[in-house]
Design goal:
The chain is of the alpha/beta class. Helix content is 50%, strand content 11%. The longest helix has 23 residues. The structure holds nicotinamide-adenine-dinucleotide.
């Protein structure tokens, strides 16, 4: 008999092609009248569109969102928020931009309207991270959960295919670890399976045709579900490893997730057979680690850590850091097993069929 605790995160989601036009209504709903629009430097044109849509409710743009939310950027954004007398943040972009908005939700306490343009899923979680002196400190706080999320698949038409594929597999990682989480529950399981299946269908179609509206819509829908799982239940070895590799060795976020996931699943396979069967079936395969690996390989994603900037000499250190903290994971961590996992990910080997 299964026992569980289920707690839902408050979420207001507006989904649909062209739904960006609803941004002014969402800001108004918050009772806000001076929105600060956040974006990365490459997405300023999109932020300008948001400002146009907001009209009188726009206070200004901050276009310096950066990967891993450096504390210097947070300080600069907070100063500008105060000088603009901003009363809400509208974040348009990927997880880095949403992450910056979360820092402003902590201080000066701006509510967030998030408009995601990747599949990272940060908009559905109460988790924040700020990097200071090369160390990313993360925490959970209900205030950083966006008050409204606008998912407009049309905004993802221009997401490069390579990033679409790795960002999509990054989303699958949330759902995959959610399925064997120590906090898993039936609602999250449903969302995880549906999210993986939607992304598994969408990514090959996007690769073939990046402007395929149905595929873009399926992918963003899957990203929403997978992001909800990330916000709803605790993650395990895979997320811990990717956090270590990203933070300590400065590896790119979505690619790292894509490369490590098949190997993290192979490590856990024997200890989480039901989750593996569900992941495999959602992807239309028979073996979860191989199905994820094949999805990445067949859609042109990087497969080996050595191809994205990792050095062989750093694998021992990565293993040590991964072993340092204790956290729940289906299979207890052992240094030999983790070191082998890292070597396989470094080499880009297809996982073996047996768990
Ligand atoms: P990102 O936000 O850094 O975006 C990567 C690049 O893609 C940027 O240059 C951005 O401008 C560009 N881009 C984004 N959308 C685009 C589009 N539609 N068209 C063209 N270019 C586009 O990358 P990401 O993978 O979305 O986010 C990664 C970050 O988010 C990491 O720092 C990660 O730790 C964080 N994250 C946090 C959580 C959480 O719950 N706190 C969850 C997931 C990810």
């Amino acid at each position: 008999m299964r026992s569980f605790t289920y707690e839902s995160q408050p979420a207001r989601v507006i989904f649909g092609g062209g739904s960006l036009v609803q941004v002014a209504r969402e800001v108004e709903r918050l009772g806000a009248s001076r929105a600060m629009v956040l974006c990365s430097s490459g997405q300023r044109a999109l932020a300008t569109r948001v400002v146009d849509l907001l009209g009188d409710r726009a206070a200004g743009i901050f276009d310096q969102a950066l990967m891993h939310v450096p504390v210097e950027t947070v300080r600069a954004a907070r100063d500008i928020a105060r000088s603009l007398r901003a009363d809400c943040a509208v974040a348009i972009g990927g997880g880095s931009t949403t992450g910056l908005a979360k820092a402003l939700a902590l201080e000066p306490g701006l509510p967030i309207v998030a408009i995601p343009t990747t599949y990272a899923g940060s908009e559905m979680t109460p988790i924040y991270g700020i990097t200071e002196a090369r160390l990313k400190k993360t925490g959970r706080d209900a205030r950083v959960l966006p008050r409204a999320v606008i998912y407009d698949p049309e905004l993802t038409f221009g997401l490069p295919v390579a990033l679409s594929v790795t960002s999509g597999i990054n989303a699958i990682a949330h759902a995959a670890e959610g399925l064997y989480s120590h906090e898993s529950n039936p609602i999250m399981d449903l969302m995880a399976r549906e999210g993986i299946a939607a992304l598994g269908r969408a990514l090959p179609a996007i690769r073939k045709s990046p402007l395929d509206a149905k595929a873009r819509s399926d992918a963003l829908y899957g990203a929403w579900l997978c992001g909800t799982v990330l916000g709803g239940v605790g993650m395990g070895l895979h997320h811990k490893l990717c956090h270590t590799l990203g933070g300590s060795f400065n590896l790119p976020h979505a690619q790292t997730h894509t490369i490590v996931l098949p190997h993290a699943l192979a490590f856990n396979a024997g200890a989480a057979p039901q989750a593996m069967a569900r992941i495999a079936s959602a992807l239309g395969g028979r073996n979860a680690p191989q199905a994820v690996y094949d999805l990445a390989r067949d859609n042109g994603a990087p497969l080996a850590l050595r191809d994205i900037g990792m050095a062989q000499v750093d694998l021992d250190r990565a293993c040590e850091i991964a072993m340092a903290g204790q956290y729940p994971n289906p299979r207890p961590l052992d240094a030999e097993g983790i070191r082998k996992l890292l070597q396989d990910a470094f080499d880009g080997k297809r996982p073996q069929a047996t768990g």
